[in-house]
Amino acid sequence: MEPQTVEGALCPACGSKTLKTTVVEKDLPHFGRAVMMVSKCSSCGYTHTDVVELEDRGHKTLKFSVDSRDKLNYLVVRSSTCRVEIPEAGLELSPGPFSNGFITTVEGVLDRFETAVLSADPESEEGRRRREKIIQWIKRAKDGKERFTLVLEDPRGVSGVIPPGA
Ligand SMILES: [Zn+2]
Fold first, then answer.
1. Separation of alpha carbons 36 and 117, rounded Å
2. What are the strands of the beta sheet with 32-41, ordered from one edge?
3. Using one digit for the tens of pLDDT, what is the confidence trace for 98-121?
4. Are 131 and 122 in contact (CB under 8 A)?
5. pLDDT tens digits along 61-83
6. 165 C-alpha to ligand 1 centroid (Å)
């Protein structure tokens, strides 16, 4: 399927009919056919990406063990309804009305958590110490020095982890 574009849809953020959505179909072996949707509003700059399967596979929780450096290069497909958690570090990415789906690597997921932790501004001294500890943990994890579990909990069962180049 060639990428398809739909223009003039209603923007959920500003209400203008200036939302442009591009749909790209990706065939991912071991995972199935996924549709990547990228929406952008030319009026307010709102963007939304999602990974969609046409069929609902039902609620699924996947636990992926990152126990070696090469696992950092595995691909993570996350739909916008998927909760992502790393229990060893107390990190969690919860789905919400404005949450985005994405396809990235395990290292890319760590980058997203790092960005989220860095953008938080704890008020207490204890909160700042905790933040610093988590940032150091993420750095070690990105160097392959921490073993951890990537938990993907998806009510639509669409999200998953696949080997690179599969
Ligand atoms: Zn808008």
1. 27
2. 4-9, 19-28, 32-41, 47-52
3. 677 888 899 999 999 999 999 888
4. yes
5. 999 999 999 999 998 988 888 99
6. 36
Q: Give me the amino acid identity at 136.
A: Q
CB count in 10 Å sphere of residue 67: 11
Question: Could you report the per-residue pLDDT of 17-39, keeping only the tens digit for each?
Answer: 999 988 888 776 655 677 788 88
Separation of CA 45 and ligand 1 centre (Å): 6
CA 41–ligand 1 middle distance (angstroms): 5
Calculate Rg over the CA atoms of the chain.
Answer: 17
Q: Which domains does the chain have, with CATH numbers?
A: 1-54 (2.20.25), 56-166 (2.60.120.1040)
CA of 75 to the centre of ligand 1 (A): 31
